[in-house]
Design goal:
By secondary structure, the chain is an alpha+beta fold. The chain has a domain at about 95-245: Jelly Rolls. The protein is about 15% helix and about 25% strand. The protein has helices spanning about 5-20, 30, 230-240, and strands at about 95-100, 105-110, 115, 135, 155-160, 170-180, 185-190, 205-210, 215-220, 245. It has a seven-stranded antiparallel beta sheet, covered by helices on one side. β6 and β7 (about 185-190) form a beta hairpin.
Length: about 250
């Protein structure tokens, strides 16, 4: 016969083991186990469609352009039109004139002035003043039978003879051979050593002496003018345009 205390103790132990820790929570086995009636029936393997990959738009690899050195567009310079017109290769804005008696044509700056032809007021049939032999940076008046106006900076004349050496009253500072319109010439810079009607001691001028085919000389020289350096520069450019022997 078993002792009642053991029976009671065994019952307490069994009760403690079977009692849930949280009376309100459902049994774990019932909370997470789906009902047998709701379990879907397994489909045969052959009846299941094979997964098909959906086409992806724009998934091709993108190639980024590699910058190329020196591919910048090249701008070619537009050639500047060649200047046209007599003297335009020398002067930006040229004017020109012709001396029909001495038979030459020459260009000069458009801002300068040259003389027009003038008849002999004393004898209309006599020799007058030819055009295109006096040049000045300012306007000037010319009177027949008088001296060359003081504004004149360049004079062009023809001479039957010409002495290009040093002689009384002048000293040659420089003397160079050159060519004017295909003709032999020389250009000299001269200093005045004695007073004359037109020059004072120390004055300088530059002259081109061109030997013509008939044995005469065409002489182009700076004159009084207010600015010798400027007149010399213009004379040098004028002689680059000189055409001798015009009809």
């Amino acid at each position: 016969m078993k002792s009642p205390s053991l029976v009671v103790g065994l019952a307490l132990v069994l009760a403690a083991c079977s009692a849930p820790s949280d009376p309100a929570a459902p049994p774990p086995s019932l909370a997470n186990t789906p009902s047998a009636a709701s379990t879907p029936a397994a489909q045969p393997a052959s009846a299941q469609p094979l997964p098909t990959a959906a086409p992806t738009v724009g998934t091709s690899p993108t190639l980024e352009a590699t910058p190329t050195v020196g591919t910048s567009p090249t701008l070619e310079a537009t050639p500047t039109p060649e200047p046209t017109g007599f003297g335009s290769a020398v002067f930006a804005d040229p004017d020109d004139c012709t001396n029909p008696e001495e038979r030459y044509r020459v260009a000069y700056p458009d801002s300068w002035y040259s003389n027009a032809a003038m008849e002999n007021p004393l004898n209309p049939d006599g020799d007058g003043i030819a055009a295109c032999w006096l040049f000045a940076p300012t306007n000037f008046s010319l009177t027949y039978g008088t001296e060359i106006p003081a504004q004149v900076a360049i004079v062009i004349r023809r001479y039957d003879e010409w002495n290009s050496g040093t002689f009384s009253g002048r000293r040659v500072l420089s003397d160079q051979e050159t060519v004017v319109d295909g003709l032999p010439a020389r250009v000299q810079e001269i200093e005045i050593t004695e007073r004359s009607l037109a020059f004072a001691p120390g004055d300088r001028f530059t002259e081109y002496v061109v030997g013509l085919e008939d044995g005469t000389y065409l002489v182009a020289t700076t004159y009084l003018g207010p600015d010798y350096a400027s007149a010399k520069s213009v004379l040098d450019d004028m002689m680059r345009t000189m055409q001798v022997g015009m009809p």
